[in-house]
Every structure is written in C-alpha cells, then in structure tokens.
Amino acid sequence: MLKKLHESGLKSEHCYMAGFASIGAAYLSWLISKNLEKAEIDRADRWGIFIGEWAPTFFAIGNGLALYEKR
After folding, report:
1. Contact (CB, 8 A) for 49 and 42
2. Which distant-in-sequence residues (6+ apart) come within 8 Å of 14 by Cβ?
3. Pairing with 11, which of 27, 36, 43, 57 sits 20 to 30 Å away (CA)?
4. Rounded CA gap, 33 and 8, in Å?
5. Do residues 55 and 62 lie in contact, with contact meaning Cβ atoms separated by under 8 Å?
6. HEC string for the chain
7. Which pLDDT band, with edges at 50, 70 and 90, does 36 fall under?
C-alpha cells in the first residue's frame, strides 16, 4: 500500500500536513457546531472527536511513508 501511495506522488510531508490540518479542522468544527447548532455541546464534542480521530491515521501513514522513502 505504501508503495502505491508513494508512486501516486503522496509524500510523508503531505500526510503530516493533513494530520495537523485535521487537528485544526476538529477545533473549528467543534467551535462552529457549538455556536451555530441548537443542539447541546454534546453534538459539538462529537463533531470535534470525529474529525480529531483522523489525525493519528494521517500521522501513521506519514510515518510509514517516511520509512519507505528512506529505503
């Protein structure tokens, strides 16, 4: 899988940037949901957690690609 990702042009730096962007998106979605939706803060928390769970995946793929790029 890492070979295919690398051959398609994806680099570890791209995954790291996506990880940090998802952290920012998690905070932003929490803030927007908290302020704009009429639901309680529980829904805002769920949105933030849902998007925040993407970051470890992007960082893990980035680490895998970094190891692949060093070979």
Report:
1. no
2. 62
3. 27
4. 35
5. no
6. CHHHHHHCCCCHHHHHHHHHHHHHHHHHHHHHHHHHCCCCHHHHHHHHHHHHCHHHHHHHHHHHHHHHHHC
7. confident
* Nearest CA-CA partner of 33 in 51, 13, 16: 51
Torsion of CA 20, 21, 23, 27, to 10 degrees: 150
Rounded to whole angstroms, the Cα distance separating 54 from 46 reads 13
- Give CA torsion, residues 28, 33, 36, 41, to 10 deg: -130
Backbone angles phi, psi at 13, to 5 degrees: -60, -35
Report the C-alpha gap between 7 and 61 in whole angstroms. 14
Q: Is the pLDDT reported for residue 56 higher than 80? A: yes
